[in-house]
Amino acid sequence: MDFLQQLGLEQENKGVSTGSTWIDSKGAKLESFSPVDGKLIGTVISADKAAYDVSMEKALAAFKEWRMWPAPKRGEIVRQFGEALREKKEPLGKLVSYEMGKSLQEGLGEVQEMIDICDFAVGLSRQLYGLSMHSERPLHRMYEQWHPLGVVGIISAFNFPVAVWSWNTALAWICGDVCIWKPSEKTPLCGIACQKIIAEVFAKNNVPEGVSCLVQGGREIGEWLSNDTNIPLISATGSTRMGKAVSTAVAARLGRSILELGGNNAIIISQHADLDMSLIGAVFGAVGTAGQRCTSTRRLIIHESVYDTFKNKLINAYKQLSIGDPLDSKNHVGPLIDKDAVKLYLDSIEKCKQQGGNFVVEGGILEGAGYESGCYVKPCIAEVTNDLGIVQHETFAPILYLIKYKTIEEAIVLQNGVPQGLSSAIMTLNIRESELFLSQAGSDCGIANVNIGTSGAEIGGAFGGEKETGGGRESGSDAWKAYMRRQTNTINWSTNLPLAQGIKFHI
Ligand code: UN1
């Protein structure tokens, strides 16, 4: 496993770092087992409270210095981070694939997202624009400026173990913030690898210790971060249950949060769709990353006139899928993250059957040579109605639900008829339908696509969703504004002190 050495990973790793310094801790030992072959890859020591406090102190001190660097100079550091990622793309992509289980193509794609967000952030570092306004008072000038916020806490999930961190850090750093990161306890080695890459770039450029902190561990670390009044902003990616706990704690201290939680994404397949194109979007969306993207396609809402044809195309396509070692490029589908995820997958299939779902492609665990980790499962397809309890729920696994519709209005109601609101798509060549879908009477999701599936969003757009998805936006567009505080400034260069709203006040 050359990639482990190339990334500087040890068999036993400290899990707390402020950059180049790795801090001793008496926290629990996290063991990272690969879902690919079930082998122990390495261990990481969790943060205890003392180590957490040391990192926070460093982060707070670093912020005082970092916020004074001109933003384009901070951008230059992020540019070098992007270069370092280009050099490490292969080993980091392999580690993502081996520790998380997604295909190597997708592991490399995830590192590509990191590189892309760095490029985006470099340009942005010269474009943190505020508006200027016309004052209602003579010889007054009014404008707004954006200042750094402070320490940004990042809680990320196992399914995008490196990219989500970089979407947050690349923006936060050019904005002048410092970051403290809790990676998923299921992918701790990805956290170590990223921290080592950035520490090298920072050390070369004399960036102060504390601009990038790592605090590995379980749920308690998330609680420390959420309750810590030193942290004005928490960006959390993961389950809706986790997001509710984080946002409640953060809101109780009137902090801010960016939440990127569950999705229950659907593609509407209209009678006007290009069905071959739709097939690629639907199958990649449903089985890519073994259905463990928050943007994975969970539901297909298919027009009754093409329902049987499309169902048969899907059944045929599923027969062609090869499931196995994700590092082997001939495989389409890798394992689920762990045996708990397999259990949830099996429970969901069971529930779906009990609730009346009809499986047209059966699921199940794969056994035998190559499947020793016990984490490989068969992507499956069930015919359902949208109101089933299980269909309303996000199961992080390759289970695809088929739902039939008659009118486009009905399809949109079905598409929106779930608690989550992340990604959505319509496959149609009919402009009236697609415009309706994109209108204010259409999809209620943060992402709405036409003739593209639900997953695989580009970093240039703002990423996130509505309802139980949490409302946060990360990555492109003007998502950077969430990482800064806005200040409105009014300057009087006259010889009088006129009051606003024409108020007269004489003394
Ligand atoms: C996630 O699953 O948490 O759109 C993020 C996509 C990726 C990001 C997914 N760019 O599928």
Automatic annotation (TrEMBL):
Pfam families: Aldedh. Residues 22-488 form the Aldehyde dehydrogenase domain. Homotetramer. Signal peptide: none annotated. Transmembrane segments: none annotated. The keyword Nucleotide-binding does not apply. This is aldehyde dehydrogenase (NAD(+)). It comes from the Bacteria. Gene3D superfamilies: Aldehyde Dehydrogenase, Chain A, domain 1, Aldehyde Dehydrogenase, Chain A, domain 2. The active site is at 260. Its EC number is 1.2.1.3. The keyword Oxidoreductase applies. Belongs to the aldehyde dehydrogenase family. SUPFAM superfamilies: ALDH-like. GO terms for molecular function: aldehyde dehydrogenase (NAD+) activity.
